Amino acid sequence: MSERALRGLIQLAMLLCLMLSAGVAIGRPPRIGEYSVEKVAPGVWRVRIGEPEKGTPTRFQETPPSREAMERLAAVEQPPVKPSAIGVKVSGRGIALEIPLEPNEQLYGLGMNLKTFQLSGSKKTVRVSDDQTTALGDSHAPAPFYVSTRGYGVYVDTARYASFYFGNLDAVRDVPPDAGNVNGGAPATSTADLYRPRELNGQFVGVDIPAARGVDVYLIGGPDMRGAVQRYNLFSGGGCLPPLWGLGVWYRGSTELGQKEIESLLRQFRERHIPCDVMGLEPGWHTHSYSCSFVWSDKYPAPEKLVSGASELGYKLNLWEHAFTHPSSPLYKPLLRWSGDYRVWGGLVPDFATPEGRRIFADYHGRQFAEKGVSGFKLDECDHQPLSATPWSYPEQTAFPSGLDGEQMHRLVGPLYQQTMASIYRSRGQRTLGLVRASGALAASLPFALYSDAYDHRDYVRAIATSGFGGVLWCPEVREAGSLEEFYRRVETAVFSAVTQIDCWYLKNPPWKQIDKDLNNSGKFMAGWERTEAVSRKLLELRMRLLPYLYAAFADYRSTGVPPTRALVVDFPQDPNVRAIDDQYLFGPSLMVAPLWTGEKKRTVYLPQGDWYDFWTHEKLSGGRKIEVTKPLDEIPVFVRGNTLLPLAEPVEFVSAQTQFRVTVGVFGAKPRKFVLFDDDGVSLDFEKGVQSRLELSWADGRGTMSTTGGYRGPSRYKIVGWKAY
Ligand code: GAL
Predict the structure, then answer these.
(1) What separation in Å is there between the alpha carbon of 380 and the centre of ligand 1?
(2) 522 CA to middle of ligand 1, Å?
(3) CB 477 near ligand 1, within 6 Å
C-alpha cells in the first residue's frame, strides 16, 4: 500500500472513531459526548463541548460581565435549555450542534440585519458583509446569538462563518409523523402540492461551525425575552454610554470640501441656527491607492486651526478613516510585523488582536488627533464582500500574527478596531462616540454606531429594530432624496434613532438646499429652499428636545441592558400580533415609533395592549388593536405609552459643558411610572467611579416632585420648568 493510501485510510479511521464517539447513528439524535456545564454569571450557563478554538469573541472581550446588574434581573435558577439535550457531531468539517427547540417558538437575532427579522424556518450564515441585499444572514454586524419568544437566549461563541438552521432540518430519527399522509394520503396533483413548504415543527436549531472541534455554548436565561436581551448585553459588559454631545445632530461634509469650505459650513450652521454637535470630515488621508496615510492632506493646510475653530463654535470633529495602512504612512514600518500576510489596496492590514498592533495604531492616533481635540472616528471598510466575485478585502486564508485567520478576523475586526479606537479616549479619561461599518458579538459596551452604503428606508427601519437583538447601535443616515417627502421622512426616522446623521459625503451643500445629488453639487438650489431648511431645523430641534430622555435611555442600556431602540416583540413577547412587526419600534422606555414611507400618506399602526397617546395631539388611544394614522410631512407617527412621564427639553443648538436643559415633563395617564434622568458631566468616564446622579421624577395627586441621589456634585444638566398633564 502506498504511503498516500495509508494516510487516507488512517484519516478515514480517525473520522469514523470521532463520529462514533459523538454518537452519530441514523435513527437516534447525536449525543453530546464530552462536555461540562458551568454557571458563569447570574442566569448564564456555559456548556463547554470538546476543545473550543482560541480565537473567539469571548477571548477578546474587554469589558467583564456586569454581574451585579445581572443579579438585579428576575432570577433564573436553571439553564433554559437542558445541556445534555444538545446534540453534537464532530467531523473533518468541524462541529455541528442540535440545540433543542419547542414547537411554535419564534426566534430573533443573529445581530443587526437590514433584511431579516424572524428567524424560525430559515437558514442564516453569520458572515460580515457590506452587501446587505440578501436575507441569508450577511450583515455589517452578525452575531451568533438568538433569542426566543419562550424567554431565553443562546450565544454560540465562535468567530467562524457558522450557519444556523432555525428548526428547518428534517433529521432522520424514525417514521415522520405525516408520512404517507401528504395531501390526505392522495398523490400530489400539482407542483404547488409537491413543493409546498413543509411544517417541520421545530425540533432543534442546527448549527454548523466549520473548522472548530469544540465550542462554548452560552445558555442565557430570561425569564422573558426582554430579560434574555438584557442579560446578553450585561454579559457583554452593559451598553455603552455615549458622551451627551454624541446624541445631538451629526453632519458630514463632502469629501470634496477643503478647510475653508468646511469652516464656512461650520459658521453657516450657527448663523442659521441649525442644530449640530458633530461635524464629520473626510480628511483626505487615503492615498491614490486608497489605503490610508493617516496624515492630513493639502485639503486641510492648517488642521490645528480647523479643530480649534470648530471647538470654539461648539462642534466636535469626527474623522473618517479605514485601517489599511499605505507604505507612505508613518505607521507602515512599525505595523509591518503586526499585520496580516496580504495587503489591501496596497496597504497593511493591522492585527488589532495583538497588543502591539493595537498600541502602535492607538498611540499614533492619540498623539496626532485626540490630543489635538479630535473627538472620534468613522471606521470605514472593516466589513467584507462574501457575495462578490471581486472582493477588495483580505481573503479567508490570511494569516495574522495573533494566530487568527482571515475568516475569524472578518468576524472579529469590527469589535477589535472599535476597542482600539475607544482605548485612545479611555486612556485620557474621555468618552467618544464613533461610527463603524462592522461589528459583531458581545459589542454592546463599544461606543460606536453602524452605518451602511445601502439606502433603503424600509430596511433602515428594520435595522433599528434588529439592532436591539444584537447589542449594537444603528445610524439610519440621511443623504440625498428623490422627493421632499422622502427627505423629511428619512430625517424623521434619523431623529428617532441612536445617532442622527445627515451624511453629505457626496453632497457639497446641505440637502435642505437641494435634495438632488447632481443639482446639489452644481450649486443649483431648490426654489424656496429656506422653507425646507425651516422644516429640517424644526425636525432636528425635536431631536435636541429628546436629549434628556435619550440620555436616560442610554444610562439604562448601560446599567440594565435594555437597548435604546428595539423591536416591539422585546417588550411584548406574549402578544402574538407583534411577532412579525419590523416597521415599528420602541425608542427609549416609553415611545413607540411607526415611520411613514414615501408615497404613504397614512399607514396602519399596531398598538400593543394598554393605553397609548398620540405624541403630537395627545389623544388617548386604547391598545390591543390596529389603527390607521395620517400625519403631515413634518410629523412622524410616535406614540407615548400610558402612565409615562416624558421629559422634553427646550432645544439647544449643541451641547456644551455649560448646557442646562430646561425640561417640561409631560404626564400621560393617572398613575405614571417614575422617570429617572441621568446627571453627570456628560463627557468623562468619572460616572464609572460613581460621579453621577439620578434625578427621579414622580407624579402623584396632581403634583410632580423631583428627588436627587448620587455622587455628581457639578452643575445639574436639568432644570424642570413645568409639568403638563394630558
Ligand atoms: C464609503 C463609506 C461612506 C463614505 C465614503 C467616503 O466607503 O461607506 O460612508 O465615508 O466611503 O469615501
Answers:
(1) 7
(2) 21
(3) no
Please, which residues have CB within 8 angstroms of residue 73's CB and are 6 or more apart in sequence? 42, 43, 227, 230, 231, 234, 560
From the CA of 477, give the closest atom in ligand 1.
9
416 Cα–ligand 1 center, Å: 20
449 & 582 share domain: no
Q: Are 186 and 266 members of one domain?
A: no
CATH number, domain containing residue 516: 3.20.20.80
Measured between alpha carbons, how far is 454 from 474 in angstroms, rounded to an integer?
13
Residue 104 has pLDDT above 90, yes or no: no
What long-range pairs does 706-709 form, CB within 8 A, spacing at least 24?
A: 708/679
**291 in the same domain as 146:** no
- Residue 193: pLDDT band with limits 50, 70, 90: confident
Here the CATH number for the domain that contains residue 571 is 2.60.40.1180
Residue 249 domain flag: no
Confidence of residue 309 (pLDDT cuts 50, 70, 90): very high
Q: Could you tell me if residue 554 is inside a domain? A: no
Q: Identify the CATH number of the domain in which residue 181 sits.
A: 2.60.40.1760
- To test the pocket of ligand 1, the residue of 254, 453, 502 to mutate (highest count of ligand atoms within 8 Å of its CB) is 453
Residue 244 lies in a domain: no
Report whether residue 668 contacts ligand 1, using a CB cutoff of 6 Å. no
Cα separations (Å) of 239 from 230, 251, 447, 499, 517? Answer: 9, 24, 8, 15, 37
**Where do we find the cell 426566534?**
107
Q: Is the CB of 505 under 6 A from ligand 1?
A: yes
Which residue segment(s) compose the domain that 677 sits in? 645-725
C-alpha cell at 664: 417640561
Identify which of 383, 505, 506 to mutate to test ligand 1's pocket (most ligand atoms within 8 A of the CB). 505
Residues 203 and 161 in one domain: yes
Give the position, in ligand 1's atom list, of the atom nearest the Cα of 320. 10
In a domain, 195, yes or no: yes
Q: How confident is the model at residue 25 (pLDDT cuts 50, 70, 90)?
A: low
Q: Which helix (H) or strand (E) holds 279?
A: strand 278-281
What is the residue-wise DSSP string for 126-158? Answer: --B-S----SSS-BSB--SEEEETTTEEEEE--
Number of structural domains, the chain?
5
Residue-wise pLDDT tens digits, 311-335 = 999 999 999 999 999 999 999 999 9
Residue 151 and residue 132 share a domain? yes
SS3 for 394-463 is: CCCCCECCCCCEHHHHHHHHHHHHHHHHHHHHHCCCECCCEEECCCCCCCCCCCEEECCCCCCHHHHHHH
255 lines ligand 1 (CB under 6 A): yes
d(CA 347, CA 569): 44
Whether residues 151 and 276 share a domain: the answer is no
